[in-house]
Backbone:
């Protein structure tokens, strides 16, 4: 039976890799097919090959999908109102030229909390190009800190899809994971961003291409009423504050008091993001003289871009549930336990292997979280949160030619494939390893 389950696990994951990498099938369909193959090989009746998948998809979308949707609304309101630009411009205006890499890393860290990686790239690339042109420095010197900040937050900090699905799969505390994620992200961004970028700029000293600069200029709207810096920062940090406050109240055991119970309520992830969405509609919409119809249209426009993300995350939940119901998850967990690998290191390795094979950080996180879920039951709350971060760190390891982000960075920065490997791919690898070391270090302390 154990041999059959091992073959089933390998067949399911191999199906996903084959479909995504070689046949270029969408990850949603690939995860669905992988779950079906795994269920059949594991010995489940063919009539029930999608039963676990649909149950897992439904519970995942119910638990995680709403959070991703609210996060997308907040991000869209920030972008459409110019709030994200205000944060960028305010920090840039107060930064001397020699400190630009550090300022760019700080901006990426802040805007990377609510914004998806791709949205953050679109917002920050024009800033990076203008700043690099003005300072007459290689674009990599400023581009790597920006990418490091966005990538670290994308892999480590909710409400990004990867950390959310891992939190849901492992039963981790979201506030605790958020707090630890921000702690881990700080040294990770510093080392893989400004420090590494200064070295890479000597390897790839390319200056900004005029054609690319013109494109970036066209993407930046300047003729609109924009919110204040304080308003934009409030929208970014409000959900972080609410969720961390809840975690603090629970850790000190104050949730029994009336005030403590209220903080726990507003700090519950769904409530915190709902409150922030309403605040964002006012500060980034109505207070800027947007009509109710215009604000409604902005909110509606946020749903289309995340439809694919929701489906992939839901399919990942279905794949995870198939792992659990077939007994494969318990079997793998037992094998990892017998191998005496620390759970945090095991989670990182599993996520890194799947990331390199598929090119998808989200698929790597989903699959690794499903495999590691049985082991999480024996961990403390703090170590379960750290397991989420270890998996997140592994999910960004070694981006290469099978990752859309690789080509996005190559084209935006006007680099060759070799130069992209020497910069973006190396940065992602260093980021992943530094984050792992930080997570392992935290595990000793807490």
Residues:
């Amino acid at each position: 039976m154990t041999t059959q389950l091992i073959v089933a696990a390998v067949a399911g994951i191999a199906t996903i890799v084959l479909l995504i990498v070689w046949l270029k099938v969408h990850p949603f369909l690939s995860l669905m097919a992988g779950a079906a193959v795994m269920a059949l090989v594991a010995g489940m009746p063919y009539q029930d090959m999608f039963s676990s998948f649909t149950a897992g998809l439904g519970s995942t979308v119910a638990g995680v999908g709403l959070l991703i949707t609210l996060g997308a609304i907040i991000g869209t309101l920030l972008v459409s109102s110019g709030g994200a630009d205000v944060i960028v411009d305010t920090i840039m205006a107060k930064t001397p030229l020699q400190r630009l890499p550090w300022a760019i890393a700080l901006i990426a860290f802040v805007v990377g909390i609510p914004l998806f990686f791709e949205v953050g790239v679109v917002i920050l690339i024009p800033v990076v190009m203008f700043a690099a042109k003005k300072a007459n420095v290689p674009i990599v010197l400023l581009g790597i800190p920006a990418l490091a900040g966005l990538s670290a937050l994308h892999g480590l900090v909710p409400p990004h899809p990867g950390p959310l699905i891992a939190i849901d799969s492992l039963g981790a505390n979201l506030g605790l994971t958020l707090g630890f994620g921000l702690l881990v992200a700080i040294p990770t961004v510093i080392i893989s961003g400004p420090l590494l970028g200064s070295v890479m700029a000597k390897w790839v000293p390319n200056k900004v291409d005029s054609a690319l600069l013109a494109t970036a200029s066209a993407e930046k709207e300047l003729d609109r009423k924009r919110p204040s810096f304080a308003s934009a920062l409030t929208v970014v940090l409000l959900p972080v504050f609410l969720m961390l406050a809840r975690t603090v109240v629970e850790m000190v055991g104050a949730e029994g008091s009336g005030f403590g119970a209220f903080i726990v309520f507003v700090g519950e992830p769904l409530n915190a993001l709902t409150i922030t969405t309403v605040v964002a509609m006012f500060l980034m919409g109505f207070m800027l003289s947007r009509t109710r119809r215009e604000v409604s249209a902005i909110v509606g426009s946020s749903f289309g871009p995340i439809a694919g993300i929701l489906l992939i995350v839901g399919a990942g939940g279905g794949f995870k549930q198939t792992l659990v119901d077939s007994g494969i998850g318990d079997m793998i967990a037992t094998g990892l336990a017998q191998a005496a690998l620390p759970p945090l290191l095991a989670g990182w390795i599993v996520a890194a292997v799947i990331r390199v094979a598929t090119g998808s950080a989200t698929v790597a996180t989903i699959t690794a979280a499903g495999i590691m879920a049985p082991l999480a039951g024996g961990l403390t709350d703090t170590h379960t949160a750290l397991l989420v971060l270890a998996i997140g760190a592994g999910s960004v390891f070694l981006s290469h030619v099978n990752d859309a982000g690789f080509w996005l960075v190559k084209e935006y920065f006007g680099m060759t494939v070799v130069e992209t490997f020497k910069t973006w791919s190396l940065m992602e690898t260093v980021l992943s390893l530094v984050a792992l070391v930080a997570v392992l270090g935290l595990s000793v302390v807490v």
Summary: Residues 214-222 have pLDDT under 50 and may be disordered.
